[in-house]
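Quick illustration for those who missed Monday's session on complexes.
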Amino acid sequence: MSDKHDAGGVPTTGHVWDDDLGDFTNQPPKWWMLGLTASAIWCVVYFLYYPSIPVSNAQGYFKGIGGWTAITEMEADKSVVDEVRGKYEAKLKDMTPAAILADGELTEYVTRSGKVLFGDNCAACHGTNGVGTVDKQGLFAPILNDDDWLYGGKIEDIHASITGGRQAVMTPHKDVLSAAEIDTLANAVAAGKPTSTPLFTEKGCTACHGADGKGMQAMGSANLTDSVWRFDGSVEGIKYTIANGVNVGPGSRIAVMPSFQAAGKLSDAEMKKLAVYVYKFGGGKN
Ligand code: HEC
Ligand code: HEC
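Prediction with heme C bound:
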C-alpha cells in the first residue's frame, strides 16, 4: 500500500481500488451514534406503548401497554364539545325562533351551526349563502340573501317556509286569454306597471297578485312591480309564465320548496336554527 493511503494513522480495511482509493475504518461521529441509538430505543418504546403489531388474538392486533385508542381520544374531545353545546341545546329546545333571536348569545351559537346545516340541506337549491340558483327557466330557488320575501320575512314566516315547505300555484292562462292579451299584460308587467292595463283587473290577476300588483304573501304570489324576477323576466319569459302558470304540472314553471318537517330530515331544533340563520340574511323587512 502506498503512502497516499495513510491518513494520519487511521487504519484501512485493506481494500484498494484502482490503486488509488482506500477504505478507511473511521468511526461515525459520536452525536450521530447517539441519535441512532436514541431513535432505536424510541421505536421500541413507541411500539410497545401504542397499538402496533397485528397478532392472532381476538382483537387482531397488539393493543399496547398504554391502553390508547383513537376512539377514546375522540370521545374525550367530543364530551368537552358536548358540554359546551349541551347548555345551549337544552335552552333552545323549548324556545320559539323569535325568542332565540332575542337572545344575542344564543343567536350567535345558532347562526354558527345554521351555516353548516344550510350548506348540507339548502345550498343545493338556494346556492351558497342563499344567493339563489338559476336554471334555464330563471331563478329556480329564490335568493334568501336579500330582504325580498315571497312568503314574508318575519321569523315566523321563514320558520314556516322551512317546516311546511312552499309551493305557490299560478293557474295557466293560455286557454282563457288571447295571444294579444297575454302580450299586453306581459309588456305591462315587464315595465313594472301591471295595473297600467285594465286587463290586469278584468282578467283576475288581482285576485292573486293584489289590486296594486305587489303580490300577497299569504299565497306567495310574486310582487310584479319591483323588477325582482323569480322566473325569466324578459317579455317572452313573462308571456310564458302567464300562459303556462306555475306549479301546475309539465310545461308550467316549477318551484317547489320541500317540507323539511314532512321529510323528517331535520330535527325541530335544527329547523329553528335555520330559521334564525336565514332571518339574519335579511329578514324582518317585509
Ligand atoms: C329542492 C330545492 C330546495 C331545497 C332543498 C330547499 N329549498 Fe327553500 N325553496 C325552494 C323553492 C323552489 C322555493 C320557492 C317556492 C315558491 O316559489 O313557491 C323556496 C322557498 C324558500 C323560502 C321562502 C322564501 C321567500 O322568499 O319567502 C325559504 C325561507 C326557504 N326556501 C328556505 C330554505 C331552507 C332553510 C332550506 C334548507 C333547510 C331550503 N329552503 C331547502 C327550493 C328549495
Ligand atoms: C291563482 C293565483 C294567480 C293568478 C290568478 C295569477 N297569478 Fe301570477 N303568480 C301567482 C303566484 C303564486 C306566483 C309566484 C310563483 C312562485 O314564485 O313560485 C305568480 C307569478 C307570476 C309571475 C312571475 C313573476 C316573477 O317574478 O318571475 C308573473 C309574470 C305573473 N304571475 C303574472 C300574472 C298575470 C299577468 C296574471 C293575470 C293574467 C296572473 N299572474 C294571475 C299566482 C297567480
